[in-house]
Design goal:
The chain is mostly helical. The chain has 4 helices and 4 strands, in the order H-H-H-E-E-H-E-E.
Length: 219
């Protein structure tokens, strides 16, 4: 075999086959062995922090898509600190922001997939059955074409998801209509539940805000 300079060089020898050793790591799983009284305390603490986290996520959804300085994280963390601790408040606000950003990416991905499906079906419907125009191939028969027409009608009537605080372009013929609502959930609990006015073991207004706007409704 010749190299780039025209000289000869020998081929690299192939090593003998061998078997890879099994993984040597170990996973340790353990659980807390607590008394019934401690277990009840852990349940109460978990429920309390869960309510705070759902209320903060709902508040973050109401704020919407805004610049970083307008997300009011310091204000939300200060309000949560009064009902927990600074460390828990920071962890809750970070988790709310991460979940909101993940939800936004999912909304954009779903909207993109919906518009892509509508565009593809309309392109193929423009071609007669069993024919091809350029790179676009029509459907095989009238039955499949009819099913795709029904599918197109359902997609165009489906609300395109749009998160609070975002603007959407004007609707044109053949695009899904606007008006879809984004739903936020945290675990198996909707995050847009009405926030309790008082928290067990604490007094005062709602952990996020005491105004009537904190009613858990997503307009």
């Amino acid at each position: 075999m010749r190299d780039a300079r025209g000289g000869r060089r020998e081929l690299r020898s192939i090593a003998a086959p061998f078997t890879v050793a099994a993984p040597s790591g170990a996973r340790i799983r353990d659980r807390l062995r607590v008394s019934p009284a401690d277990a009840e305390v852990l349940v109460l603490v978990g429920g309390h922090l869960g309510r705070l986290a759902r209320a903060d996520l709902a508040e973050r959804v109401r704020i919407g898509t805004v610049p970083v300085r307008e997300r009011r994280r310091a204000e939300r963390k200060k309000a949560l600190t009064r009902h927990s601790s600074s460390r828990w408040a920071g962890a809750i606000t970070r988790a709310s922001e991460d979940q909101y950003q993940l939800g936004m990416r999912c909304l954009h991905a779903e909207r993109t997939a919906l518009l892509r499906s509508v565009r593809k079906i309309r392109q193929r419907l423009a071609v007669p059955c069993g024919r091809r125009m350029g790179r676009v191939r029509g459907y095989a028969d009238q039955a499949e074409r009819f099913q795709k027409q029904r599918r197109l009608a359902l997609l165009e009537a489906r609300p395109a998801p749009r998160a609070r605080g975002t603007t959407s372009p004007p609707r044109t013929p053949g695009t899904p209509r606007e008006g879809g609502k984004s739903r936020a959930r945290r675990g198996d609990q909707p995050a847009l539940f009405p926030a309790p006015k008082t928290v067990r073991g604490a007094t005062g207004p709602s952990p996020i805000s005491g105004d009537p706007a904190n009613n858990g409704q997503h307009r």
